[in-house]
Design brief:
Oligomer: single chain
Strand content: 15-25%
Order of helices and strands: HHHHEEHHEHEEHE
Number of helices: 8
Largest sheet: 4 strands, antiparallel
Shape: elongated
Radius of gyration: 28 Å
Distance between the termini: 58 Å
Strand order of the largest sheet: 4-5-3-6
Number of domains: 2
Structural class: alpha+beta
């Protein structure tokens, strides 16, 4: 009696285990690489989550293949039924819930979109690994890493966000002229990218929260003077937007 028979294992079982281990291992490596990149940028969805997503997606694809006869089963009594694409389609739709949880809106800023996209790609690579499409999974992994690293430097250099600020204003409602405020900001070359306005009937104050692009030549004194000419300015807060976490 050989070792395989001693443990109750037959050749069909080993033939099924080998491709399963290889595919799960490939999914693990891909998830670890993407998760490590997210972990370096201190994202909540980091190393562990990406590994679990990738390996879980690979396992679901492997199960789909087993049920449809794409991978041999150790127990021949299990019926081979089903379409391998059906479970994969459920993974694609279901992963959206995890991705949506990584997206956060803070004022005018929407953060976590890159992490949500990385979660989705991690699931896709896991499905490809479970299918045995290692070339497609590897190329996708390289493209994803290149996008997260090389294009990050490109964006930082050519599309800097350091002059995007949030301006919070409180005016006395009486004699306030919003048209004049727009003209004053335009006069100092300040572009308004977005605005929220709040006004309660029981108060004589009107509140603005604006996302503005401040040119390098505009200082705080110039900005304050322009704002005061639009009406009685009661409060002003200027916050430099942090670079959105990726």
């Amino acid at each position: 009696m050989n070792t395989v028979a001693a443990f109750g294992l037959d050749s069909s079982f080993l033939n099924a285990v080998n491709p399963v281990l290889v595919r799960l291992s490939a999914a693990f490596v891909a998830g670890a690489v993407l998760g490590l990149e997210r972990q370096v940028h201190r994202q909540p969805a980091g190393l562990k989550i990406h590994i679990l997503i990738s390996v879980g997606s690979a396992l679901l694809m492997i199960v789909s293949l087993m049920l449809s006869g794409g991978i041999s089963l150790s127990d021949p009594s299990i019926a081979r039924i089903g379409d391998p694409a059906r479970l994969a389609a459920q993974v694609v739709s279901g992963i959206g819930f995890l991705g949506g949880g990584a997206i956060i809106r803070q004022g005018f800023n929407i953060k976590g979109l890159t992490t949500a996209a990385t979660i989705w790609v991690s699931a896709a690579i896991g499905l490809a690994s479970g299918l045995g499409a290692f070339l497609a999974a590897g190329v996708t992994l390289l493209i994803a890493l290149g996008t997260l690293t090389v294009l990050e430097r490109f964006e930082t250099r050519f599309f800097p966000a350091k002059n995007i600020k949030t301006l919070y204003l409180v005016y006395q409602d009486k004699n306030f002229d919003y048209g004049l405020l727009e003209r004053e900001l335009a006069g100092v070359k300040i572009a308004v990218g977005g605005m929220d306005v709040a006004k309660t009937l029981s108060s004589d104050r009107i509140k603005f929260s604006l996302q503005i692009h401040v040119p390098p030549h505009v200082d705080l004194v110039t900005l304050t003077g322009a704002l005061e000419r639009a009406g009685k300015l009661l409060k002003m807060e200027l916050t430099a937007n942090e670079k959105s976490p990726r």
